[in-house]
Design a protein that fits this description.
The protein is of the alpha/beta class. The protein has one domain: TIM Barrel (Alpha-Beta Barrel). The chain is built from 11 helices and 8 strands. The chain is globular. The structure holds flavin-adenine dinucleotide. Flavin-adenine dinucleotide binds next to strand 3, strand 4, helix 5 and helix 6.
Length: about 290
């Protein structure tokens, strides 16, 4: 049975979640419980991140992505990075994904890391043909503010067009805290004839340290509206978390009102984030409960 994510966009606006695999000693049992909680919201799919770095959790991406389909009937999207990998290593990952019944893959380059030199793949677009040949529905990352390594926005859009032309079926955006960046990006995609569906990734801020990290790793701007809310919450960690969720819900309402292809919630493995997003989207009529 096919559960290609690209086909979902033709029927309706989608609603999905991202989780990351448990790190260190945390067992796959933890992920199982989390997926069970998220499955209650009947998302169109749940994506599972992949860490090629030192966290040692890359193996569980496939296991979690496979299990969520078998146990909860939730379509999965497994992330896969290609930086530092050879074609043979990717062929092994493909075999694992197929054995687990995963049909959707988010093709990524991965962040530059010491020791991860280019082997067979320079860019995410180079990974797409091998995945398409293996029969996957393939997603790609996109950046409403432009990718952090690329200084020129129109160059960033040109490279995204090349990503579409490589066979990518749909896109998932990087987080942003000012929706105007997304609307500007969407117009630029239209002008560049980027026609594949774009699902919009939204994440709540949780602390000053987290948002500063985001700004430097993803190049996301921090608008004054966010700074003011962080200032108002002061040193109160709980008030900051609440403010982050409230701000995310405002972003979601505005995006829903402006007609997006899909909304993708970066849950950070927190069911309360998923719950708040779900309630907001039911309330504004984006999701029909
Ligand atoms: P690419 O599309 O290859 O782009 C990387 C850079 O190369 C960009 O600056 C681009 O402009 C430039 N470029 C592309 N093509 C060309 C070309 N032909 N010539 C010159 N320059 C070019 N990372 C993880 O490690 N694990 C994850 O699970 C993960 N999940 C993510 C999910 C989403 C939705 C997003 C948005 C990002 C995710 N990332 C993840 C982070 C991602 O790996 C980084 O953002 C990485 O720096 C770029 O990945 P990419 O696939 O967009 O790369």
């Amino acid at each position: 049975m096919s559960n290609f994510i690209s086909s979902y966009f033709t029927n309706k606006q989608t609603f999905s979640f991202e989780i990351f695999p448990p790190k260190g000693e945390l067992s796959i049992e933890t992920a199982r419980t989390l997926v069970g909680e998220l499955a209650k919201f009947a998302p169109d799919w749940i994506s599972v991140t992949f860490s090629a770095g030192g966290s040692g959790n890359s193996g569980s991406t496939v296991a979690i992505a496979g299990e969520m389909q078998e146990q909860y009937g939730v379509t999965s999207l497994a992330h896969l990075t290609c930086m530092g990998a050879s074609k043979e290593e990717i062929a092994e990952r493909i075999a694992e994904l197929k054995a687990a019944g995963v049909q959707n893959v988010l093709a990524l380059r991965g962040d530059r890391m010491p020791g991860h030199e280019i082997v067979d793949f320079r860019y995410a677009a180079d990974l797409v043909p091998q995945l398409k040949e293996a029969g996957f529905c393939v997603g790609g990352a996109c950046y409403p503010e432009g990718h952090v390594e690329c200084l020129d926005f129109s160059t960033s859009i040109g490279r995204l067009k090349a990503k579409q032309d490589s066979g990518t079926d749909f896109l998932v955006t990087q987080l942003f805290f000012d929706n105007e960046y997304f609307y500007r990006f969407r117009e630029a995609c239209d002008r560049a004839r980027i026609k594949i569906p774009v699902t919009v990734g939204v994440m709540p801020f949780t602390s000053v340290a987290q948002i500063q990290r985001m700004a430097f790793t993803c190049g996301a701007s921090i608008p004054s509206q966010v700074i003011k809310r962080l200032v108002a919450a002061g040193n109160d960690a709980e008030a900051t978390r609440r403010a982050g969720i409230e701000f995310m819900c405002e972003q979601l309402r505005d995006l829903a009102a402006n007609g997006v292809d899909g909304l993708h919630i970066y849950t950070m493995n927190r069911p309360d984030v998923a719950q708040a997003a779900y309630d907001t989207l039911v309330d504004c009529g984006y999701i029909h409960a």
